[in-house]
Amino acid sequence: MSNSAAASTGGFDPLALANAAKLTKVGTRPKLGHYLKDFAQRRAFAFTLAKFNLQASTAKSSLGAAWHVVVPALQIGVYGAIFGLLLASARPANFVPYLITGIVLFQFISGCFTDGAKSITGNASLVRSLDFPRILLPVSAVVSNIMRVLPLIGLMLIGILIFGQVPNWNWLLIVPVFVLMTLFSTGAAMISARMTVHLEDFNQLLPFITRVLFYSSGIFWNIDKMVPAGLLREILHNNPIHLYLVLARASLVSGYTAEANDWMVAAAWAVGILAFGTVWFWRAEEKYGRNV
Amino acid sequence: MSNPPVFLEQGRKPVVVVDDIKVTYRVFASGKKVTPGNSRVKHKGRLREVEALKGVSLVAYEGDSIGVIGTNGSGKSTLMKAISGLLPIDAGSVFASSRPSFLGVGAAMIKELSGEKNVILGGLALGMSKAEIKDKFDHIVDFAGIRDFIDLPMQTYSSGMVERLKFSIAAAREHDILIIDEALAVGDQDFRRRSEARMRELASGAGSVFLVSHSMKSILDTCNRAIWLDKGIVKMDGTAQEVCRAYAAAQGAPLDD
Q1: B123, B113, B44, B151: which is closest to A57 by C-alpha?
Q2: pLDDT digits over B137-166, tens only?
Q3: A128:B81 CB<8 A
Q4: Is the CB of B237 less than 8 angstroms away from the CB of A49?
């Protein structure tokens, strides 16, 4: 036979051999606790990847990082002009601050959702060549969206100031609102990340889903005023994205308030989607790599 | 054709045990040319199965450096990815003393970013701390020999420079089990000598190294063992000398040593 004389050839018992040498099985999904611990240890990777990706994406264009501000500014201008005229008397009160908060915050949530969807499939070479908790990738997508939206939130505050809002202590509530939104968006990013791995075509549906959410979340119209009381209004009102906008406007725009119930439902959405997203994403951990 | 018996040695500590693994790729084969009037969507392709590994078993011991040879498409890269856990396997199992590290072509590099930033990112992905990366930064850059280009975006690097930098990042860390998939083929003579020395060093610790290469010289210089894969099964498993000799003879280019 081909084997050297020093080697014995018969009696291959892989399990006994592996057990005797205390070897562990490769390619099995770690327990959730270990997984999250490993994730926490390597979080610097998610942050650095987000930062570098942001730098890389702006390095090529001549306006660079300014695009992150120019695009939403253009959107506000266009939607403000079109819906401002179209809706005329049905315009929500304090229309411009209403629209600014809506567009800026919606852009953050939908950005997490869309970038999360690409986070595994778009980093295929990374996934195929290095071993790290895959959850770092959708989280990194969320981190880069946070980095992009923070200066925008600063501009949003200046914007609503210019359009007649007076700063007050209520404005501080935007911090917990943003935290809830971020938790929710992280969960959404994990869900969309796994969806795309299972179903490449999900990417085709994404722009459509974001469009539907854009029109149904009360970005430029007031659900509570325009939809007659009843089940439909309840559903539209308690849509998580709409709720975060309700809370944000209650904090920033005069004439808008939120009920205690809104806070509770918004928090439940954030915790629920984050928990579901984390577990659902983790359950396919060992499968990422084949389909991308 | 059946697999030869698994290469076993009493008294040595195994670090990797591969037990009869199978990997099948399922791909859509349209079977028709894609032209504007004949789109892939309309003519739904048939699902075709490609058996990349048809049941491979092997044992790697402490201090082993194993060369993996075989023609293109024989399953070498699939086997390496399966051992490292990067590719899910359909049947069988892989046991290892610790999670193997895989170094392959086309890995974690963002080409718009400078070499410097890629060193940081690659190090973090491998689980190094920022302080550790800072400590080893100069060593990594000098090992790769790209000091003059480190602040340029990686899209300006030659493919050899990219592979050199990647190997240097991976080799900066200690690995129990290191798998190198043709990553060194693009380096120049000088770099090859340095990297082979580093691989021998890594294997001489408690670890084990797998090297996929088409260069018999590389394998004979670095490995004590070799495995010859052919059409998804192990054709031969033995000392680097005898396996390389048999493979070269089968390829019609006998070794002259």
Answers
A1: B113
A2: 999 999 988 899 999 988 888 888 888 888
A3: yes
A4: no
For range A143-155, the mean pLDDT: 93
The dihedral built from the CA positions of residue A234, A239, A243 and A246, taken in this order, carries a sign that is negative
List CB contacts (< 8 A) between B236 and chain A.
2
Which of A25, A60, A290 shows the shortest C-beta gap to B87? A290
Can you give the residue range of the structural domain that contains A62? 29-287
Q: Do A3 and B85 touch (CB under 8 A)?
A: no
With H, G, I as helix, E, B as strand and everything else as coil, classify residue A230.
coil
Burial A212-226 (b: 16+ CB within 10 A, else e): ebbeebbbbbbbeee
What mean pLDDT do residues B106-121 have?
A: 78
Chain A stretch 107-126, residues whose beta carbon is closer than 8 A to a beta carbon of chain B:
125-126
- Chain A contact set for B9 (CB, 8 A): 6-8
Q: Collect all residues of chain B within an 8 Å Cβ-Cβ radius of residue A132.
A: 125, 127
Packing angle, helices A95-121 and A174-198, rounded to 10 = 40
The domain total for chain A is 1
Give the tokens for residue A58: 């702006």
Inter-chain residue contact A56 with B89, CB threshold 8 Å: no
Which amino acid, B56?
V
- CB neighbours (10 Å) of residue A184? 26
DSSP-derived secondary structure for A250-270: HHHSTT----HHHHHHHHHHH
A12 assigned to some structural domain:
no
Residue B18: beta bridge partners?
Answer: B58, B94
Contact indicator for B156, B165 with CB cutoff of 8 Å = no
**Which residues 183-242 on chain B approach chain A with CB closer than 8 angstroms?**
236-239, 242
Pick A131's closest partner by Cβ from B20, B59, B84.
B84
In a domain, A23, yes or no: no
Q: Is A75 contained in some domain?
A: yes
Would residue B89 be called left, alpha or beta, if left means φ above 0 and alpha means ψ between -120 and 50 degrees?
beta
Q: Which residue of B has its CA nearest to A4?
A: B238
Judge whether B14 and A18 are in contact, CB under 8 Å: yes
Inside any domain, residue A14: no
pLDDT (tens digit per residue) in B22-56:
998 877 766 555 555 444 444 445 777 888 999 99
ipTM entry: 0.72
Task: Choose among B12, B16, B8: nearest CA to A11.
Answer: B8
Q: Which of B94, B113, B129 minimises the CB distance to A52?
A: B113
Token pair 């796994």 is found at A194
Q: What is the pTM of this model?
A: 0.82
Q: Show the DSSP H helices in chain A as ranges.
A: 14-20, 32-41, 43-59, 67-87, 95-121, 124-129, 136-162, 174-198, 202-216, 223-226, 231-237, 240-252, 260-282
Is B91 at the interface with chain A, CB within 8 A?
no
- pLDDT (tens digit, 9 = 90+) per residue, A57-85? 777 677 777 777 888 888 888 888 888 78
Tokens of A242: 């709409």
